[in-house]
From TrEMBL:
Entry EC no(s): 2.7.1.31
Keywords: Kinase, Transferase
Gene3D superfamilies the record matches: Glycerate kinase, domain 2
Gene: glxK_2
Signal sequence range: none
Organism whose genome encodes this protein: Halalkalibacter krulwichiae
Identification of the protein by name: Glycerate kinase
Keyword Secreted: no
Top-rank taxon, per record: Bacteria
Amino acid sequence: MAEASGLTLIQKDRLDPLNATTYGTGELIKCALDAGCKKIILGIGGSATNDGGAGMASALGVRFLNADGDELAPGGGYLQELDKICIEHIDKRIYETEIIVASDVTNPLCGSTGASAVFGPQKGATPEMVEHLDRSLSHYASKIKEQLSISIRDFPGSGAAGGLGGD
């Protein structure tokens, strides 16, 4: 994950946690699927992102729409605008693939020990950005629970890699 969406890929003065995306991580997963992989070990951590894994999911065909039906701009800063999650075009091979997530943290997605509060500052987030990103991830988690019946907000490790651990 860090090789596609990591902190080491971006100069410190160019960090942008509101707009950074895990899309590249999703592209790598898609390449693994194209190569016929049926088991993927995904090491997460060291990310420059805080998008809850929405970019990764987008690369695999999931669409995130606002109330007007338009796709959200990439990055965690826009997740507050999320209205509908469309999984109709998800790469179906993902359902036939075992994905093992390797993470060394147990932080939840949101709150004082969540992705934005704990890891946001190392990604360049100001205190105001941390609050914005935490609200965005909370809204994202609510929409996932409401529309997909999956609870990621308090799942241990869901705050890893800017929330990628919950996706």
